[in-house]
Amino acid sequence: MAIDSKQAEAPFDRDRQANLRLRWAGHGMAGASFLYDAVAAELSERLSLVQRRFEIGLEIGGYDGRLARSASSQVETMIRMAPEPRWLAEAPLAVAGDDEWLPFRDDSLDLVLAPLTLHQTNDTPGAIAQIRRALRPDGLFLAALMGGETLSELRASLIAAEAEIYGGASPRVQPFIELRDAGALLQRTGFALPVIDQERQVVRYDTMFGLMADLRAMGMANSLLARSRKPVGRRLFLRAAELYAQRFSDADGRIRATFDIIFLSGWKPHESQQKPLAPGSAKASLADALKDRSGG
Q1: What whole-number distance in Å separates Cα of residue 11 and Cα of residue 31?
Q2: Running DSSP on this structure, what letter comes out for residue 274?
Q3: Is the per-residue pLDDT at 95 higher than 90?
Q4: Out of 86, 139, 218, 238, which could bridge 135 as a Cys pair, Cβ 3.0 to 4.6 Å?
Q5: Which of 122, 112, 118 is nearest to 224 (CA)?
Q6: What does the longest C-alpha to C-alpha distance in the chain come to?
Q7: In the beta sheet, which residues pair with residue 146?
């Protein structure tokens, strides 16, 4: 399928994303919250390593608000922002808004948390630049987004099956950011002391259809503008499931699904901050970096 210039600039169908999020909010992830559970716990742990109190914090997205509640022990005023008001029903302070447009003044926030939202924005650099704008000097940005080889097995199986049956393939799994590009993105948007690392989770399923059911429950079904609108029959997905099982199954017959999670950390520049190390000279882990930063 040809992609016009508008699609190239804006890969996602935001209306479809809104509908997927409504389904997600309505069904409570239907037992498929394992990725968000892991990310919320990890970001909460990483924030706890910063021995500092924040006056005003913002969580973008966050599904059920557990990360915001955990962060409240370090934040005087915690605000939640999400596109679906039902996600915000129990939030003391909440703003219903789009994660591509932050309705906050310049230099008004001390902490921004973004768990598993930014990889589905049409202008991720712009969204992160807005976060930097809204942070006060020496404010902290912590985020997690899907990256790298996420769903690579599903992508390969669908492409192979569609090429075999129809002689060509349309995008059915979105591309995800690579680790090196995520690092460049933080630098490009002007964050100081950027720290980027990646964790990989491999989840196993009985069949490809179990994986696809979880993706629908998580609101991660195909929302690409360039996706094919032509109806396809069961034959495509049955063949893709066969190829998936042939190429990506373990000895017990269960298939593997890869999820790469990229964690980002950066500070809005302030004169009190230490000078960055020369490129390629960093040795510390993320935990060490946050501990060093908190003592400054």
Answers
A1: 28
A2: P
A3: no
A4: 139
A5: 122
A6: 61
A7: 261
Q: Are the beta carbons of 83 and 98 closer than 8 angstroms? A: yes
Helix extents (H) in the chain: 5-9, 14-27, 34-48, 66-71, 124-134, 152-166, 179-188, 208-217, 234-247, 286-294
| Residue 47: both structure tokens together | 């924030």
By the 10 Å C-beta count (0-12 exposed, 13-18 middle, 19+ buried), 120 is classed as buried
Secondary structure of residue 203 in the 3-state scheme: strand
Measure CA of the first residue to CA of the last residue in the chain; give whole Å: 53
Q: Letter for the amino acid at 129?
A: A
DSSP structure string for 93-120: SEEE--TTS----TT-EEEEEEES-GGG
pLDDT in tens, 36-64: 899 999 999 999 999 899 999 999 987 77
Distance (Å, rounded) from C-alpha 142 to C-alpha 144?
7
Q: What sign has the CA pseudo-torsion 149, 155, 157, 159?
A: negative
Beta bridge partners of residue 204, listed in sequence order: 256
